[in-house]
Amino acid sequence: MIDTDFFYEPHAVVERGAPVFVQDGSVLPKKIFFHCCCAPCTEWPLYYLRVHGIEPQGYFYNPNIHPTLEWERRLGGLNELNVKHKFKFLTAGDSEEERWRSFVKRDKAGHCRICYAVRLYQTAAKAAELGYEGFSTSLLVSPYQNRPLILQLGKLAAKKFNLRFYGFDFRPGYHYGQDMAKRDGLYRQKFCGCIFSLAESDYSAKIAAEIAYPLENLPFPRPGYQH
């Protein structure tokens, strides 16, 4: 049943009841496994999928979110989404800051590739374990993420487990989703997630102060680091 209080005006972006197709032209199943990076980026896809009669099973696996307090804040946001809109999700892993610090890359793209690959692979593995036909991710809602790379890595992970990766383009609803999250009082983060993105943020000092993280512990970009 659609939570009518949840859905409130964005008809210019999605037509209620219209069939949803993926890249090969086939109709989606009624249930899909869905990786969630955070509550604000999940709220619009949840709306979109439910309008089309698809119920996503959420999966919060984000070892790339640092430090631990920030990871807990984002998990808390999904718990709030569950309370408000009955969105069920599983949680796996925790914050793995030290592991991410060990990934010696000299460019931002290298770090982003690791973040995408680790999460999509684990999501595919869990989807296969639970018997789903395929999976998708809330990463596809943000215009600031590397969509081509997400699609590439999602398909590779899906192939490994004989699944399908649903490459939705949720981006037209990004701002609606942010408005929904604001209306619902969900935690809305100010940086992507990993310790490197925190260090690169223009607001790193302010964010570090908010989460009581020593500024001197941030891995400020090394000489030759390319954004």
From TrEMBL:
Belongs to the QueH family. [4Fe-4S] cluster binds at C37, C38, C112, C115. GO terms for biological process: tRNA queuosine(34) biosynthetic process. The lineage of its organism: Bacteria, Bacillati, Bacillota, Clostridia, Eubacteriales. Its EC number is 1.17.99.6. The gene is queH. Disulfide bonds join C192-C194. It comes from Mageeibacillus indolicus (strain UPII9-5) (Clostridiales genomosp. BVAB3 (strain UPII9-5)). The keyword Oxidoreductase applies. GO terms for molecular function: 4 iron, 4 sulfur cluster binding; epoxyqueuosine reductase activity; metal ion binding. This is Epoxyqueuosine reductase QueH. Catalyzes the conversion of epoxyqueuosine (oQ) to queuosine (Q), which is a hypermodified base found in the wobble positions of tRNA(Asp), tRNA(Asn), tRNA(His) and tRNA(Tyr). Pfam families: QueH. It catalyses: epoxyqueuosine(34) in tRNA + AH2 = queuosine(34) in tRNA + A + H2O. InterPro entries: QueH. It is an enzyme of class 1 (oxidoreductase). Pathway: tRNA modification; tRNA-queuosine biosynthesis. The keyword Metal-binding applies. Keywords: 4Fe-4S, Disulfide bond, Iron, Iron-sulfur, Metal-binding, Oxidoreductase, Queuosine biosynthesis, Redox-active center, tRNA processing.
